[in-house]
Amino acid sequence: MPSEPKVPDFLCAVVDRFMGPDGGARIAAWMRSPDLCMTPVAMSAMKSTRTSFARVLARHMIRDRWRIVGREFNCDAEGDGRAIYDISIGAHRLTYIARMFRWDGVEKVGRRSDGAYRDMCGAIFVGTPDERRIAEEFAVLETRDADTARSRGDVTGWTPANRSVRFFDHVVDQLAAGQQPDPAVIGSGAGYLLRNGGYLGSGRYGTLSVEGYPAGHPLSHPFFGDLFGLLLVRQVSIDMVEAIAAARSPNAVRLTPEIARYIGVGNSSGQGMCVALQRWPHWVATWMVVRELSLAYAKAQPVASQAPRMLALLDRAIDYYASVQVPNDELIVPHHVIVTNLTSIRDWVADVPRVGPAMFWGTLAARATAAVDAETAEQFHALLIECYPEFADAAADYLPIGAARVRDVQPEMPVAVLRRLLHDGYGWALRMDLGNSEARRHFWYHSADNGEQRRGDRGVDPHEEFESFIDHVGMTQRLAALLTAYDDDAPVAEIIADQPDIAYAISRVQYLAGLPYSEIRGNLGSADFLPSQLIRFFLACLGMECGNPLSIRYVRGVFFQGMRLPHEIAAGTQDDWALPEQPSVSHLGAAHPGIAA
Amino acid sequence: MNAVSVAMAEIVREGTWALRALGYPYGTAERAASLLAWTEAVHGHGLAMLRLGEAAIAAGAARPAPGWRRDAQGIRQADAHGKCLFECGPPALDLATAAARLHGGLGRAVLRGAIGTRLSGALGAIAARRALAAVLVHAPGAAEIAPVPPPGWICALPTSEGPAFQAGSLDQALPAMLPAPLHVAAEDIAAARAAGNEGFFSIAALSCPPMEPPPGAVDWPQRLALAYRTGAQADPADLETLYLLEMRTWAPTSERSRNQAGFGRY
Q1: ipTM, 2 decimals?
Q2: Looking at beta carbons, which residues of chain A come within 8 Å of B11?
Q3: When comparing pLDDT for A190 and A244, which is higher?
Q4: Which of residues 6-65 of B touch A (CB under 8 A)?
Q5: Element holding A168 (H helix, E strand)
Q6: pLDDT of residue B263
Q7: Do A504 and B24 touch (CB under 8 A)?
Q8: Which region holds residue A459: left if phi is over 0, alpha if psi is between -120 and 50, else beta?
């Protein structure tokens, strides 16, 4: 009998706190098997939830009343300018500088191969640098040269971004004409004006390593640096369209708060994300166990406990999917289908009797899984998690703990024990037939175009010898074959002594052992695998909405659409902002107060 | 030289690829990259090893793995035949760790003819993180990568605050406060003195609960923490080498290649 994977102790304690001593058994009954939810197809359907990193960051920001104050914003009628923001988080200080470049008429995709050729780039400093240091960093950004650009350890990262031109221009033109932009136009472009193209931090170009943050620093949480950078790009986009409009016309107006909130920040991501997921499997395991546990908790609750809240959330989600358009619905469930199916689920929820024997959310979730498409079902799951925020927030506190899991070989482990771990956790991989040429068709490589990750065909494309690691199935099968050549009681150190590179496979199996959702159950090298599936999953875990594959290897979407504005964050407003309703033109208020000191 | 600040995460990330360029497979390179970063942060000249030792490291990588044997005392012995500790240091530590943990006693491994003895401290740090007290003895051979580090010993000790270290030359006695079984490493010091031009590296490791930080500990943990906060200070030529090596692993571009990252249904 395979040993049962175990929810980490931290999360067991959360379950006990919310459900009492028998909670573990009750919640386990609702947890999904990894065979169901860890395949690339299943992961592709997953949506941003309250446990996604952007939502967790937003909750921290609002709870701790982060203050984002504009110190300087200079920008001409063509968008050429620079900005400085001061950020206070309790006793911590950050400084953000942004260099916006004159529009050159070229819409930029935002690929890594573009290097530093972007429409804007910012840098986040830890602390408050002096004028000389700020000038030095501005000079680096000014070069727009990825080959020579270099930062230092007082910068957490750079935030390159490009204009989404049609929507950016629409907003500027309207404001310059003294009118508000049409929210429907903004929504038709997925709701953003600037689109981020990667976060160049965590050691890249000499920036601060994550381990280098002072203890307790608010950005030391996984992905908080990246996502706070994204949020600052969103702020720049709001300030930038207003500044350009003001430079063009004395009659220009500022955005109303409703529309400013409705503007998110775009992101485009490529195939490198698949490699990252394979490189950091304990990240995936952490995100999944937090998500699945939160979902299982919600499923174990009676419908009557949160039916009105769920109906309100469904209404909002239906409105959101009906109003936001994405450029390509070929590889996703079209929004109009999700709207139809969410409407059906809404009817089911409304029809559940409020008296009599309790129906559990899990019953409705099972009905949804059986009756509607996977994306609608996952959106319903996300709303379920939202209905029980206290549990989800407590579970999400595990995100930094799980991410800190350290991988090292346990060299004394007997071969028989490692063989058992393989049997228990990797049967799905050992059963795959890699002898079929289609099963090993693709490999990932870095290209000479600025190191951009690309996917080639084995035997056709060059540099296979330098492929990026994605083949955990092949790794597992190689390890299993090797183990047959050693005695049961031999320590695995003997295998490593003979074949040093197998240490990676051994340590991976060892450190993931016992985690409930530890590996992606799919073969990334097969002809059938679509990179966009895992890109969407990664981005949903980060908090992206509307993850839309523009091709099988490229995904765009929006972050922080609906997120509160700086003055609201500083006031500690409530954090129920995701999936915002499209503002109605007839109900717009006065201009937002801006962020000047 | 105007030093350039290099982030630790940058060394690990790019170093993995640089080491791939020198011939190591992924599993070896990703393990070695953390040794590289630790060494650059604490001792300096880690990245210089890639620049100045490129040919020697690559030649060693192409040779078969050392054949480990067990001597009459149970000590694991191997001839590295010029391989670098990037590759054969971690397996040596694994063998010593396994012996120490399985038998509740001492685990010992000796490598002769290895280069890269500058990495000894980084291997000691891994030992201490594994809750092992360890003595590592290192003496460079004639083929050692420049700048050649002096021979000596390193005591790596687990403490409640993380690894602590003491270090000395081969002429200095081991610290008296070491757990008694580890004083057997005096044999390794004698062997290192006698090794001549061969190059010598040894580990003696003992399972050990966290100790009090020893008096006279060297400041390596502080150097490491500083490097994480502000970056390691490296020779610009070494940083350039790191990236040039990485770029060797990049495939040439083409229209077909560009399509393999972009839009369209491929």
Answers
A1: 0.97
A2: 203
A3: A244
A4: 6-13, 17, 20-21, 24-28, 30-31, 65
A5: helix A165-176
A6: 60
A7: no
A8: left
Q: Which of B12, B16, B31, B111 is best to mutate for the A interface (most A CBs within 10 A)?
A: B31
Beta-carbon contacts below 8 Å between A and B: 190
Q: What is the mean pLDDT of chain B?
A: 95
| Chain-chain contact of B98 with A411 (C-beta, under 8 angstroms) | yes
B253·A447 Cβ contact <8 A: yes
Please tell me the predicted confidence (pLDDT) of residue B265.
45
Summarize the confidence of residues A278-293 as an average pLDDT.
97
**Band (A2; pLDDT cuts 50, 70, 90):** very low
Which is more confidently placed, A238 or A353? A238
Residue type, A354: R
Chain B interface includes A304 (CB < 8 A): no
The kind and range of the H/E element at A428 are: helix A415-430
Contacts of A367 by beta carbon, 8 Å cutoff, 6+ apart: A348
Are β-strands A81-89 and A92-100 bridged in parallel, bridged antiparallel, or unpaired? antiparallel
d(CA A593, CA B165): 56
Give me the phi and psi of B203, to 5 degrees please.
-130, 135
User: Which amino acid, one-letter code, is at A313?
Assistant: L
Give the model's pLDDT for residue A1. Answer: 43
For range A231-248, the mean pLDDT? 98
Mean pLDDT of A275-302: 97
Which chain A residue lies closest to B22 (C-alpha atoms)? Answer: A466
Mean pLDDT of A252-258: 96
Does residue B103 have a pLDDT over 90? no
CB-CB: which of B229, B249, B262 is closest to A446? Answer: B249
Helix (H), strand (E) at residue A401:
helix A399-403
- What does the DSSP 8-state code read for residue B144? P
Tell me if B56 sits within 8 A of B143, measured CB to CB. yes
Distance of CA A166 to the CA centre of its chain: 25
Contact A550, B263 (CB under 8 A): yes
pLDDT at A301 > cutoff 60: yes
Burial A399-424 (b: 16+ CB within 10 A, else e): beebbebeebbbbbbbbebbbebbeb
Give, in degrees to the nearest 5, the angle at Cα B236 between B230 and B240. 110
Give the lowest-confidence range in A14-28, A165-179, A188-202, A516-530.
A188-202
Cβ-defined contacts of A575-579 (< 8 Å, 24+): A575/A55, A575/A58, A575/A59, A575/A62, A575/A63, A577/A58, A577/A261, A578/A48, A578/A50, A578/A55, A578/A386, A578/A545, A579/A313, A579/A316, A579/A317, A579/A320, A579/A545
What pTM does this model have?
A: 0.96
Q: How far apart are CA B112 and CA A383, in angstroms?
A: 62
Chain B residues whose CB is inside 8 A of the A150 CB are 4
Question: Model confidence over B185-196: pLDDT tens digits?
Answer: 999 999 999 998
Mean pLDDT score, B223-237: 96
Residue A152, pLDDT > 70, answer yes
Please state, rounded to an integer, the average pLDDT across all residues of chain A: 94
Contact criterion met (CB < 8 Å) for A466 and B20: yes
Closest Cβ opposite residue B8 in set A113, A211, A456: A211
Q: A115 at the B interface (CB within 8 A)? A: no
- Please tell me the distance from the alpha carbon of residue A477 to that of residue A300, in angstroms, as a whole number: 38
- A94 pLDDT band, cuts 50/70/90, is very high
CB contact under 8 A, B91 and A496: yes
Tokens 């530093």 — which residue? A116
Structure tokens at A579: 């999936």
Q: Considering only alpha carbons, which residue of chain B is nearest residue A452? A: B261
A324: tokens are 């936001």
